[in-house]
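Why do we bother with holo predictions? Because pocket geometry can differ from the apo form. Keep that in mind while you read this record for F0G.
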Amino acid sequence: MNSESVARELAEPNLRRLLSTAGLDVEYVSASGNTLYRQGANGEPIPVLDYAAGYGALIFGHNHPDIVARARELLDEQTPVLAQFSSHPYANQLAAELNRIIRRETGSDEPYYATFANSGAEGIEAAIKHAELDRVLRLSAVFEEIEASTRRVREEVRAGTATVPEGLGARLGLPRPAAGQDALDLLIAEIDRRNQRRRAKPPVFVALKSGFHGKLMGSVQLTHNEAYRTPFSALGAQARFVPCDHPEALKELLQDERGTLLQLTVADGGVRLVERDHHTICAVLLEPIQGEGGIRPLSRAFAQEIKAFAEEADCPVVIDEIQSGMGRTGDFLGATRLGLRGDYYVFAKSLGGGLAKASVTLVREGRYRPEFELLHSSTFAKDSFSCHIALKVLQMLEADGGQGYRLARERGAALAGMLRGIRTDFPDVVKDVRGHGLMLGFEFHDQSEATDDTLREAARSSMFGYVIAGHLLHAHAIRTFPTASAVHTLRFEPSVLLTDEEIDRLEHALRDVCALLREQAGHRLVLA
Ligand code: F0G
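The structure, written out:
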């Protein structure tokens, strides 16, 4: 490769340029625990305290020694990383351990079957594909019932044990049969035409405003952020978004999506036209705590409304635990706090322990379609390395009766307490502190009307959170980012290794930022 092409930026140069405007285009050369190390001007490692932590993917921090040791062990023993189409005992062990933990937290003995993938969005794609397969197969079963019923009606009319009442066709707007036309044939043809039109309606997914479920073709249509979603709307099944804590929006949606399938039956010697409820809602998706949308915890009450909605719509609740799961909120499941059991769960991020790329989609037995296993796969999924690493992460979370969860609760409470203390002292600057455990958001008031030019321009160009992140990095050697769809909110998602000293360092830095904002002193921002 010639020196010119090396000099030229070829890996997402536009993003790199954008990062540089906020001083975020720095190079990290190593990482351990809650610390990333930058390369100093003289090649010395500069420690940076990492509160972004892989966007919530490092429940045990960077390169945790026990997880690294397990990785080394696996590689030294030449684990069969890629052994597709084989028994994969490690995948079954992982699925069994996930089931054991879910059983404990939900109190239900119903098994969940696991489908593996390589990223969060892929896990969501598997979930929505499975839900669609289930919807289509259930719809086929309904059509088989309708067709069997039609056959029975034909037999009874032919045998003279049933007649087609006058005017039945008129209910469907059919004209009186002309000479030589058979009233029943006309009726059956019209019913089938209407039913097939209904059957051809595409599935509808229900998701929440501010929700984020990934950026692949299917999952991006379930992600509320319009910038991510709308350029690709033609590519995937559409979602309808409801605002959180608006149960009436769920009821309206169900009513709006409701339709009917028509069926002929026979009763008391007469042919009857029956209307069967039908809707195209395929699944409802939620995050127990919305992450990328601004660290917004779902309320228990609304979670129960969603459960009632799904029961009435007879569709699965897909709980996206990709960011809120794996102990981050202080329970294994972020949904445990909501008293909500999922029909499906999706895990990723911390499942890979900061070393492997893995996701798993779990479907409860009552909704599971074994056919799916022959229709969905991925070269790298369910591999021995990521399954064993994931088993190690679960073992570390579960050790000592759940030490990982206790740490997430205790460390999260200490961090949240500090953040709330700052909000109490700077109510003019800090709008809200949200979240649970080690999934916390710190929201600044909108600075779009700031008197300071720099701050106002940053806010108006949706760069405010990134500029503050740049200042935290260069003035305080602390790394975090705004949640990309809510740029006035900084995300704090460190590992359970968080120390009091690291909390103190963040407090000092944030108080500096709040003072700078209170004084409208944009000139004090350090972005390089
Ligand atoms: N679902 C949730 C709740 C997520 O937070 C993410 C990623 C995904 C799905 C997609 O997972 O990136 O592995 O494909 N969240 C990142 C964030 C982007 O900013 O928190 P992925």
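The first strand starts at residue 28 and ends at 32.
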